[in-house]
Design brief:
elongated; mainly alpha; DEATH-like_dom_sf; Death Domain, Fas; Death_dom; FADD; 14 helices
């Protein structure tokens, strides 16, 4: 079974997203308590509206304003965004470099459990980036393999179609000239009901060419994998077994 390129790309994107740095509530509370008089500037820098800020001030005690601002901002961010870097940058812009560094030093919930020993934390941190690199490399390899398989399959389909479809212009013209009064039925069976009227109107004095034109139009528009077999069946359906036999035995020169 051919691997779906789209599925592999989604899997790779998921792996990358799940490895992005996050900020837990402990870190946000710590930063929020220290922001002090810069809370208004930070809120504006983070994109909160004046209404957001006033609601927070009315609903929470002063010492909790910082955390509430940060928490509201975090909830509005997309999951794929690196909020650790975004918050650090916002703090730098309001000249709170000290807090920006603390944000960068914060660990995500995965690495901040109180029960985790220093040795375990060091071990995880030491293996974190090789793991990410391995996921990225594996994803890229899968994508490349999928692309190669898709190209190979398309090439095989193209070869197969070339072997089985002997519908060259010579054959189409030959069948088209012999179709005669069955041209309307042929057009209907080929799904070219509307097109046959356009062909007739565009070349009203050359009825002998209508059949070829409708076959040519069908061949260019159809996505049927084996046009030769499809045309043979349609010719039989409209009672032209003689022409179906000619298509079946035709060999391109």
């Amino acid at each position: 079974m051919m691997v779906s390129l789209a599925k592999i790309q989604c899997l790779l994107a998921f792996c990358l997203v799940t490895t992005r740095a996050d900020l837990d509530n402990v870190c946000l509370m710590n930063i929020g308590r220290q922001i002090g008089d810069d809370i208004q500037s930070l809120a504006i820098q983070l994109g909160l509206s004046n209404a957001d800020i006033e609601n927070i001030k009315q609903q929470h005690v002063t010492g909790n304003w910082g955390f509430q601002v940060l928490n509201k901002w975090k909830q509005r961010r997309d999951k794929h965004e690196d909020i650790q870097q975004l918050l650090a940058e916002a703090l730098r812009k309001i000249e709170r470099v000290d807090l920006a560094q603390q944000v960068l030093d914060c660990q995500s919930e995965t690495f901040s459990d109180e029960g985790m020993t220093g040795a375990k934390r060091s071990h995880i941190e030491g293996n974190k980036f090789p793991l990410i690199a391995g996921i990225v490399i594996a994803g890229l390899v899968l994508v490349m393999v999928s692309i190669a398989v898709n190209l190979w399959m398309r090439e095989r389909v193209g070869v197969s179609r070339g072997d089985s479809d002997a519908l060259d212009p010579v054959l189409l013209e030959k069948i088209g000239k012999k179709i005669g009064s069955k041209v309307q039925s042929l057009a209907v069976h080929l799904g070219q009901r509307d097109n046959i009227e356009n062909i007739k109107a565009g070349d009203p004095h050359n009825a002998g060419n209508w059949g070829y034109k409708i076959l040519e139009s069908w061949q260019q528009a159809t996505e049927v994998p084996n046009q030769k077999e499809a045309l043979i069946k349609i010719l039989k359906d409209i009672g032209r077994n003689d022409l179906a036999g000619e298509v079946e035995t035709y060999t391109p020169s």
